[in-house]
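Q: Two folds, back to back.
A: First:
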Amino acid sequence: MGKKQGNQAYQIKRLTQQKVERLSVEGPWSRAMLAKLRRGIGKQPGELPELFEILFMDMPEELYGIGDEPSYAEWAIYTSLTLFALHQQGKDRPMSIGGKIEGKNTGNSLGAAVGTLVKQDKEREPAIKRRFDAVLTANEFTEFAYHARGLIQLLRGGDITLDYPRLAEDLYRYQFDENRNRIRLRWGEDYYRVAHLSTENAEKENGGVL
């Protein structure tokens, strides 16, 4: 990963954190903007001009697109914020939780969040896994958002949080061919680590009986 890409990934994560924090402050503006963001799921960043305020607010010039197409940064931030708005709907506590302790991420990645969902109800794993696989194999962002919508609704129903600034960073990196399989691999590792490996470890600690 190049230095420029790494710097932009950091900027995207920090900027998304700022936007999520502002959206999480209760008030007329945040309620209205969250509703507008929900209508933007599965659309391109330029389709709803009423979202430009939250998308472009405080965005450094180097993250803007060149020409008529959205930049990788714009796609990543836009997709994360629209999904966050859906996740936060009807919730009193923040659904985006994350940060770093000693350099390690503490919030749920997409894979870890879905793995937690499976732990809640193992019988639903085949259906959840099909949705997860559809997200992992999406070839473009409107398709990604289309499949992710169902997963986010399930996470909201299970009261499971997701680190949206981290998701924005992942989605930015995902758009580079050399990174895509690494992101998919990490999401898959996180999924199985939470959904299965933690259960296996618990069984060993209890002599094979949960």
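A: Second:
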Amino acid sequence: MLRILILADDLSGAADCGVACAGAGLETLVALRHTDEEPVADVLSLDADTRSLAAEQAAKKIDQLMRGYAANSDLLLFKKIDSTLRGNVGAELAAALRALRDVRPGAPRRIAIMAPAFPAIGRTTIDGTQFVHGQPLHNLDIWRVQGMNGHAHIPDMLQPFGLQCEVLGLDVIRSARSPLSDTMNAAAQIADVLVCDAETDADLLAIASASMRLDCKPIWVGSAGLAYQLPQAAGLSKTTHFAPVSLPPISGPLLFVIGSLSRNSLEQVRILSSSSATIEICVPPEVLLAGGRNADWFVYAHELERAFRSNQDVVLSPKTEPRIDLAERPFIAAALARLATTVARNAGALIASGGETARAVFEALDITQMRLLGELEKGIPISITENWSRPLPVITKAGDFGGASALLNCSRFLHREESRLVSARTSGKVIE
């Protein structure tokens, strides 16, 4: 029986949030689209694919999806947002709350518990403002590159969408004087969204646990950081760590499709290609955008095919110069996917970085569902394709997630040079 629905705005987010539940022993599926068929899982993490849509379009899609699930009063609803607040955060949250209230008008007034912190990767919330490694998000390149304006103060970002916010600071979250649930209940009388500060996983667990005792059942809003705490707070956890993963034999080369252009992602590609036998194929943006109309497209396609015939792993990515315009990125992702599909069905495993790129590749291959198994490090889940032509190991990650050797570690894991997965808990322990 489905116990938790995660509604994400991109595919890598759906996977890294869903794996938090898989680590708690819950059968978890990631799906690229909604179907009327009941999932055989405890948790469904659904990619609504709204990250790059206009706000009005994104809100409409979230409204439709939420209304399909809101009538189930036993279902825990989690709206996954990016820990750097990319996408249509305010528009989608307003639509989700409106749908919940419309579907069950006689029930206690529904609110949102919002905690976007992900301390394990350096994202925290202080006084309602989002920070990355101790720096205000709005001072960093990632904010400007995404075309974001103003400050990363969450109530200010939500106010234009008619959402009344109440910030619960760290003094409230950590207070021993009065139960946090009482404070939340009082704030819920006047606010639509309780924006919760958090610097540690203990803060997030306190938030999740207190929210379970509210007079109304909220919708939880956050990144994977909050999702890790939700099963335990709800009493749904079945285990404290990942079981050993059993993968099908890796019978072909590894295919890395890296669409993210974050500095972290570029460094991961550099280390992978310099520290292993992986061939790097970087395609100029103008070739990707022109496709078959550019003769060089076929040169790169043949290079990719030659590498696979030689059983060599390949990392496929766009060249970073000239700088790729934000509006061109969906087209770049789609072109990378088309190029990848010339060999992807013969791949031993598929590793995709960047939610937009991952989705484009999976759609091109008609992969619609993946069953989550575990994660190699925080935010880097591994799964197996569900209902595809064969069980294909898949690793997805957001471009900015993972250490410098993240992609190299993926390669070593899949080639059985390493066999460890990180614990679902945030202690950093590993299991064999």
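Q: And?
A: Residues 423-432 have pLDDT under 50 and may be disordered.
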